[in-house]
# Entry
Amino acid sequence: MKKLIAAVIAITVLFSAAALADDLSALTDEELLALHQEVLNEMERRSLPDTPETDSELADIAERVIAFFAAWNKNNPDEMLALCDSGWKATVEDPRTALPGILANMTPLDATIESAKEIAGEGPDGLTYYLVKVNAHLDRNDGTSAEMYSIPFLVRKEEDGLWYINPTGFESRVAAEEESPAEAEPESDHEAAAEETVLYYHPDGGESYHLDQNCLSVHSKYLPLQGSFLYAELNDEPYRTLKRCEVCGAPFRPKSRPEFMSFRDAVDAAGEGAAIGGDLDYITVVAKKDGQYYRTVTMLDDQAKELYMATWGTEDPDAAYEAFNAYAWSLPVCYTEEITVKPKDQAELDAQAGKTVGELLKEGYSFYGIGGGENLPTTVDLSSGLFVYEFEVDASFEYYLEHEGWDGVEDLKVKNGTLSDALNLATSLDYLADGTYQPQIVPHITAEEKAAADSVPPIEEYSQKAWPLTEEGYLDLQNNPDARYGQVYMVEGVVCQVLSESPMRAIIWTGEDGHSRPVVVECPEWRSFKWEEGQSYRIYADVTSACYIMPVLTARYMFQ
# Structure
């Protein structure tokens, strides 16, 4: 028998699955059972599970259902309609119009699959149906607290093998009882669970952690799940690599409060050779790292601006600047951008030898400065883009003194040129990252925008026009602010910095990482809403302008 088993194992290695099947069919029942036991023993020795942890059918349904609710949360009708079944689409005149009516302008804040049961037999169309029930907190977007609802609906597997949702059942939603008062109104998808919450997993090769010990997505062979640990241990070994189960609504991993890098931290990290600059609205630091230049920007709030203005005309400017720097440098970094324009290489600078300064000016260079000294060469500094170049010219120190600086400089001939360490131009946000000079004006709420705030449509109408501010949407808005003027967006993010309180103006990071894709959000003066730095908000707002590289939106409805 051992020889026979060895022969079969050899066949597994050397031949195709079809050939192996032919050889297995030649075995007697006793020989096949013995081989099966031998394989099980070997799998146990290698700690390989003989049955997948998840029930593939239910897992596929769960994946599609959760994807629908995620698209609903983002108010993305295209993604939702792509997940709706073709039978429902055929019964309505316009699915894109019918779907918002069914969803009743609500927004799901979470979604937990309570049950998923196959309907006996096949449907009249020959397709397989499941009845799914989902518990979800639904926000009516009217300023009231979110409520828990139980939502029953059908899903069916269509001919492409994928599951699709029939949203008609969403109209049959009923209010559901809360399990505990603490769960009545989740602040966000990442609301932390209590540290003593018990989580479950399959200890022999399981890949996910669950809130339900008898989770629907887990194969019945492993139920009830035998492994358990506390939520407080979720980021410890061996649980830190487990994935969150969306089917039973397992809590997200603990999410720490965003850590803001201060401008002082950015300056310290930039090291020697960095250039620091700014204006009434911002301060910047430009530094070179790994052969590339980067510009880091901090926006000044009202207090910083007052301190900056106090440095003008004071009897003790040093003390005034010290007070300004102490406060302004403690403010958070808003964003860092890569300087995309490149400095001229040395070969190009060498090619300028023999030309006059005037000829270089005609080629696009600009005067930046002139220098020299006794026993030192006379140099003319010319700028191009964001960079400054130092050109040695054929003039003595005496000639420099006699011509009092700029007189006759255009006639001087260049001997050689080098890239200067000066990066002052790059610290000005009037220069774009590509080197283009484009003076900027920091926008403010206009009288027209204040008046428009009094005639904003109701939230159920206004929110239907909202586009989700995804990564692609952010880049589109950043590159086409004028074309998107007036467009409504649903903005979700963390307040990085409150710039002013009258009117309310804040910088909000909209990136999934919690510290990227900044936008400026303004509130008309009549609003009493107060931002809190470090907190997450969901905002419905329309585009009104741009502030440097940041889109500016005027908020109409805001929820924490």
Observations:
- Confidence is low (pLDDT under 50) at residues 1-21, 180-192.
- The CA atoms of residues 369 and 398 lie 18 Å apart.
